[in-house]
Amino acid sequence: MSKEQQQVNEAIRAREVRLIDAQGTQLGIKPFREALRMAQEADLDLVNVAPQAKPPVCRIMDYGKYRYEQSKREKEARKNQKTVQIKEVRFSPSIEEHDVHTKLRNVKKFLNNGDKVKLSIRFRGREITHQDLGRKILNRMAQEVKDIGDVERQPKLEGRQMIMILSPKTTNS
Questions:
Q1: Would the CA dihedral through 52, 53, 56, 58 be positive or negative?
Q2: 97-151: per-residue pLDDT in tens?
Q3: Could you point out which of 26, 82, 87, 156 has its C-alpha 20 to 30 Å from the C-alpha of 130?
Q4: What residue numbers bound the domain in which 45 lies?
Q5: pTM
Q6: Zinc-finger among the record's keywords (predicted)?
């Protein structure tokens, strides 16, 4: 439930609530005014934690501290997320052997770092009539990295470019 939807103190619209105190023990079903009075006596807030329940479940807690800890948990979760980037490696249909090895080394490095790789071949002028050369280069690259990467998208011509996407192999161990 998002912070904007969380009902606190007077914002709660219910006659009766199932009350949980600050230690987590259930106090049973209480009238809303009595629950709010108990929260104010404890110098804490009354927070609706399950508004869809019948009657709604409310907890006596320090709402500011609760929101602070929740934001810390969300920040920690974002920090631990791995963002997958798409790295692009460009070829031409008339690429030399040494250049293929250099680009292959880069593709392997990107896949080992956990990034996806977009291989693209740009056809210029009359080179577009030799699409088979481009497809051969892309298939060769996929064959060379098949132990560390999978073909996510087969070679496909889009305008004057042939594009293939490789993704790192998923380890199921």
A1: negative
A2: 999 999 999 999 999 988 899 999 999 989 889 889 989 999 999 999 989 989 9
A3: 87
A4: 7-77
A5: 0.54
A6: no
